[in-house]
UniProtKB/TrEMBL annotation:
<keyword id="KW-0472">Membrane</keyword>
<dbReference type="InterPro" id="IPR000566">
    <property type="entry name" value="Lipocln_cytosolic_FA-bd_dom"/>
</dbReference>
<dbReference type="Pfam" id="PF08212">
    <property type="entry name" value="Lipocalin_2"/>
</dbReference>
<comment type="subunit">
    <text>Homodimer.</text>
</comment>
<dbReference type="InterPro" id="IPR012674">
    <property type="entry name" value="Calycin"/>
</dbReference>
<comment type="function">
    <text>Involved in the storage or transport of lipids necessary for membrane maintenance under stressful conditions. Displays a binding preference for lysophospholipids.</text>
</comment>
<keyword id="KW-0449">Lipoprotein</keyword>
<keyword id="KW-0446">Lipid-binding</keyword>
<dbReference type="InterPro" id="IPR002446">
    <property type="entry name" value="Lipocalin_bac"/>
</dbReference>
<dbReference type="GO" id="GO:0006950">
    <property type="term" value="P:response to stress"/>
</dbReference>
<protein>
    <recommendedName>
        <fullName>Outer membrane lipoprotein Blc</fullName>
    </recommendedName>
</protein>
<dbReference type="GO" id="GO:0008289">
    <property type="term" value="F:lipid binding"/>
</dbReference>
<comment type="similarity">
    <text>Belongs to the calycin superfamily. Lipocalin family.</text>
</comment>
<dbReference type="GO" id="GO:0009279">
    <property type="term" value="C:cell outer membrane"/>
</dbReference>
<keyword id="KW-0998">Cell outer membrane</keyword>
<dbReference type="InterPro" id="IPR022271">
    <property type="entry name" value="Lipocalin_ApoD"/>
</dbReference>
<feature type="domain" description="Lipocalin/cytosolic fatty-acid binding">
    <location>
        <begin position="36"/>
        <end position="183"/>
    </location>
</feature>
Length: 186
């Protein structure tokens, strides 16, 4: 358990610190959606695709995130995935909104709560594309180093996915690094 907490703290530090080590930033600043209804956003999201990152290397399939309300404008984040050996693994964190009550900019931490006072344990979680029905979302951070495509269902039809990729390309993302995330339906 302590090993898991230390790994979670290290993960949060690296994610939060990634903004300082990013390479060349695209000319236009990354835009978020205009308004995020956090209550509608709660629930389970399946990972459809992601850019490779070290903290999800053990995730072989069935990656998903569950968002549950906490006191105030905070959200519990439970990330789960299936490793290659079939075992489920999870990381539990917390998200908080940055900005006004409709802001699509959040910060997330997976470090222990007692470290939450440290700004470096919080990583950017920006909702940059979201359909009106809250069924398909793209999440990133200001430097575009990380990108996740999430959906309410484990699969997304090809036309809808292609349209999202087109919008992400217009936002300056290098989609050559984007990898599809296997969902087995467990």
């Amino acid at each position: 358990m302590i090993k898991h907490r230390l790994a979670s703290a290290a993960l949060a530090l690296l994610v939060a610190g990634s903004a300082f080590g990013a390479g060349t930033e695209p000319a236009a600043p990354l835009k978020t959606i205009e308004k995020l209804d956090l209550v509608r956003y709660l629930g389970t999201w399946h990972e459809i695709a992601r850019t490779p990152n070290w903290f999800q290397q053990k995730c072989a399939s069935d990656t998903r995130a569950e968002y549950r309300p906490l006191a105030g404008d905070r959200v519990e984040v439970i990330n789960r995935c299936r490793k290659a050996d079939g075992q489920l693994t999870e990381a539990i964190g917390e998200a908080r909104r940055v900005g006004g009550p409709d802001s699509a900019r959040l910060e997330v931490r997976f470090a222990p709560a007692w470290l939450s006072w440290l700004p470096v344990v919080w990583g950017d979680y920006w909702v940059i594309d979201l359909d009106p029905e809250y069924q398909l979302v793209a999440v990133s951070e200001p430097q575009r180093k990380y990108l996740w495509v999430l959906a309410r269902q484990p699969q997304v039809d090809a036309q809808t996915y292609a349209a999202l990729l087109g919008r992400l390309k217009q936002q300056g993302f290098d989609l050559s690094q984007l990898e599809r995330s296997p969902q087995s339906g467990h």
